[in-house]
Amino acid sequence: MSTISDSANRAREASQVLASIESETKDAVLRTLARLIRAQSALILGANTGDMDAARESGLDAPKLARLELTEAGLEQMCRGLEQIAAMEDPVGMVTTERVVESGLKVQKVRSPLGVIAMIYEARPGVTIDAFALCFKAGNACLLKGGREAAHSNAALAELAKRALGENGAPESAIELVTTSDREEIKEMLGLTGVIDLVIPRGGARLIEFVHEHARVPTIQHFHGVCHAFVHASADLEKALAICTTGTTSAPATCNSLECVLVDAAIADEFLPRLGAACGRDGIELRGDSRTVQLAPGAVAAAEDDWGTEFLDKIIACRVIDGLDGAIEHIQQFGSDHTETIVAQDEEVCERFARRVTSSCVLTNASTRFNDGFQLGLGAEIGISTSRIHAYGPMGLAELTIERYIVRGDGQVR
Amino acid sequence: MSTISDSANRAREASQVLASIESETKDAVLRTLARLIRAQSALILGANTGDMDAARESGLDAPKLARLELTEAGLEQMCRGLEQIAAMEDPVGMVTTERVVESGLKVQKVRSPLGVIAMIYEARPGVTIDAFALCFKAGNACLLKGGREAAHSNAALAELAKRALGENGAPESAIELVTTSDREEIKEMLGLTGVIDLVIPRGGARLIEFVHEHARVPTIQHFHGVCHAFVHASADLEKALAICTTGTTSAPATCNSLECVLVDAAIADEFLPRLGAACGRDGIELRGDSRTVQLAPGAVAAAEDDWGTEFLDKIIACRVIDGLDGAIEHIQQFGSDHTETIVAQDEEVCERFARRVTSSCVLTNASTRFNDGFQLGLGAEIGISTSRIHAYGPMGLAELTIERYIVRGDGQVR
Hints:
The structure is a homodimer.
Chain A (H helix, E strand, L loop, with lengths): L2 H16 L4 H17 L1 H17 L4 H7 L3 H16 L7 E6 L5 E8 L2 E5 L5 H12 L3 E5 L5 H17 L7 E3 L5 H8 L7 E4 L3 H10 L12 E5 L5 H13 L8 E7 L3 H15 L2 E4 L1 H6 L4 E2 L13 E7 L1 H12 L4 E5 L3 H10 L4 E6 L16 E7 L1 E5 L5 E12 L2
Parallel strand pairs in A: 3-4, 3-6, 4-5, 7-8, 7-12, 8-11, 9-10, 9-11, 12-13
Antiparallel strand pairs in A: 1-2, 2-16, 14-15
Helix pairs in contact in A: 2-5, 2-7, 3-7, 5-6, 6-7, 10-11
């Protein structure tokens, strides 16, 4: 038996214990882990420095380096996240609906753990802790396959998680790190039906496609976000400018950052000169269609494949389109079902946009950067699903469970 | 382009229209279809007679013949089902949660159609109408691949559905029948990512395994039910007898019928003679372990593979086990995550059973036959999911949608 199937089987066994573990034990594990991370921050940052040095040497690009880096402040945020998750209500056992039916049966839908969740992700080591904490709080064991670049950081973090589990009498295999990057072994993992209940890939197109091709266990994709802002003729242009510029500058390397601005032809003359100036001021590269290049100072000509590209950098593609239908057509062709926003004072147009654009999160008069579990009030998120199955949009604790039926009777037959 | 991919693409186009179709139009289509089925019942029953004759000739077994057969009463039930679904609330656009978050954003989760749903099923022609009606009401187009045995029945029913769609100005490709049984073409269908959003296979092990092996689009399995009743030492034996016998006699060929009775050793002497007599009276074949054969008149020795087998006939396997732990161990080894029930007057034992057995539906003191969308108050069901993803247990209208986020702001940025 391979290492990966050993790990998966250990996680499976742990999941059977976790299914009926007390909430108090789970929360104690999360709080212990926060304490251990704070106490051992030098060790973790040392491991991360090793990863960063190797990554720089191998020529990793700037956005990826940014995602790989851990800082003292980042660790503190991680610990607060753990404490927040510990303080949240346990989703397991939660009754979501309850009714008494004609036969007198009392029918409940109750949240239960999924079982074993495998995550495959890339550079961010913080995901290791976030994913473990959310999976564990929802009663699941997790099998974590992070990026090779983050190997030392992930190992240091997982080691502390196991220690926190052990100190509280919980099964240490509630977290299992997959250290191989061998494609054949990963394929094997993706085929472990009955051992793994769900695979969540988070990352670039190649990773997602690999998982899509080889997974036999259910998957929920956390794909990239090619996010659009449509500036309608009725837009408040000040708001539009703020939504467009901060949408990329506040965190260019995140999936909810803005990639593309669609400008209603009716206001192109007025809006584009201001957008060009604002981008110049904020250090954003503006890649436009011919109309944009004409009207926006500093804009360069967009290449055909700039539409539908996730830049992960301070770059915005910009195109002039004809009204709502033009915007929707562009989004249907180039969007990624992730996040789109409309800037418009005309509420009816906003509602039509929200109804017809069926991305996982559609906003009106707000930045795409709000498509995030914390910002939307979920308390935490394991990622943002772009699969229209099980969960679509930010996945929090509830989305890591499944509802099953518990039905109480008094001898009813049919 | 193959026929199957043509059909799928037509369904995809229809789904784009259905996403924003009015509730009134959907309901009118369903009511028109009921009217057409009543008016054309002779034609449908004639087509079904053709299927039945051919099936008998080819030696189809009794349970399958029973599932293939349509009757006047069955058609009337189908029509009432359509009218019930028409009368149900439209799930699309339903707001499931709503909150205002710190930033002032108004966050809604709203139900949206999945898109295109492909169903692969076996003999029952009634599924053609049920599946269409539920998918359509939830705003989805459907691609239906029924059993070859039911080809004429399905063609007659789908023809009427298309007519009902056309009469109400809805796209006729909201229902597309897949008439090929060529494995290569079905494989192609299972790979149509981006065209088909969900595949629901309903049927035997070979069908499920085929879909599991070849599907690249998400699937939710509607597998067989190997359903257990555990008769605890504290059971009311009258209730236990009724639950055990009617669990199979009331509809042996359904997935929620009872397969296996687990008898607590503490009451075996008292219960088994009565179970044997009741089975004899009701024409149920009782296949037991040695203790059962000893104590239950008429019981025959069970073979090893009777445990975990879905009989689809008036057969019950019976075993004497040691208390709750023994029952749970047996269910974990041989169960199918479908339906299990406990008969016990001790409420604490009932609760422990309900917590530790994680099948899609766990009942206490009620027949397994109640695991059914109608009986549990869903109004209707497309099947019973045994996949712990998206939906687990009976799937009704809500389970054929996905929730997405609509977020309304007033210029918020971060």
